[in-house]
Amino acid sequence: MWGSQSTCRYLFAVGETLSLLSFSGDALLACHRSYRSRPTHGIGRFQHLLPKEVPKRKKEKVQMKEISEGTEYQYGDLNIQMTSYDLCLVEHFAQYVHRLCNRLSIRVNESYAMPTKTNEVLFLEERGSKMQLDAVLTTHQRVVQIRGLSSTFAPILLEIIQSSQPEGVHLLMKQHTEADFKSRLKSRPELEELLAEMS
């Protein structure tokens, strides 16, 4: 009899303890702060730091600009052409000429590369009529187009460029023409034939 009463008391005490624990647990859950209210919120975010992606546009076809003929005291559009077999050499020299013109306050219209030309060197055998390939030479050309160069300053600029001209680079300064613009674009005879057939 006594044992059953003590057991009941024990079970009653355990029940009260569990109810207290559940109540305190609810209180703890109620005062729990959400993730967004913590001071460490947003530490790993980086998307807002990235630049917005601009949709890619199709490359527009290069259109010919109006050629300036110049005046009595100023040249119009001039092309400074640099040609070499060494790509690295001609590229760096073109960059130097471009920076020099900017430093001397000479207006640079544009700086561009011409299509690479390939030449095959053939030689004839001593005994025979068959030609054999000896070497393949690739010619690289860069053009810096300037405008409004003073006629009095032109020889000074040319002398500065020639004094720093590297060995193996051919330099040519000439007036820009429509033929120069057309030679800049690669010819596509197959496409031209198809367009001619369609029209």
Outline the structure in words:
This protein has 199 residues and is an alpha+beta fold. The protein has a domain at 77-186: Ribosomal protein S10 (Alpha-Beta Plaits, 2-Layer Sandwich), CATH 3.30.70. Helix content is 37%, strand content 24%. It is built from five helices and five strands; from the N terminus they run H-E-H-E-E-E-H-E-H-H. The protein has helices at 2-30, 87-103, 154-163, 178-184, 189-198, and strands at residues 77-84, 107-113, 117-124, 131-147, 169-175. Strands 1, 2, 3, 4 and 5 form a five-stranded antiparallel sheet that branches. The longest helix is centred in the N-terminal third of the chain and has 29 residues, at 2-30.
Brief sketch in words of this structure:
InterPro entries: Ribosomal_mL48, Ribosomal_uS10_dom, Ribosomal_uS10_dom_sf. The chain has 199 residues and is an alpha+beta fold.
Count, helices? 5
Low-confidence parts? 20-28
Number of strands: 5
| Proportion in β-strands | 15-25%
Please give the share of residues in helix: 25-40%
Helix and strand succession? Answer: HEHEEEHEHH
Main sheet attributes: strand count, strand direction, barrel closure: 5 strands, antiparallel
Return the average pLDDT rounded to an integer. Answer: 79
- CATH architecture call of the domain at 77-186: 2-Layer Sandwich
Spatial gap, N to C terminus: 116 Å
- CA radius of gyration is 40 Å
- Gross morphology is extended
What is the CATH fold-level name of the domain at 77-186? Alpha-Beta Plaits
Name of the CATH first level of the domain at 77-186? Alpha Beta
CATH H-level name of the domain at 77-186... which superfamily?
A: Ribosomal protein S10
Derived structural class: alpha+beta
Pfam families: Ribosomal_S10
GO cellular component, one term: mitochondrial ribosome
Subcellular location: Mitochondrion
Family: Belongs to the mitochondrion-specific ribosomal protein mL48 family.
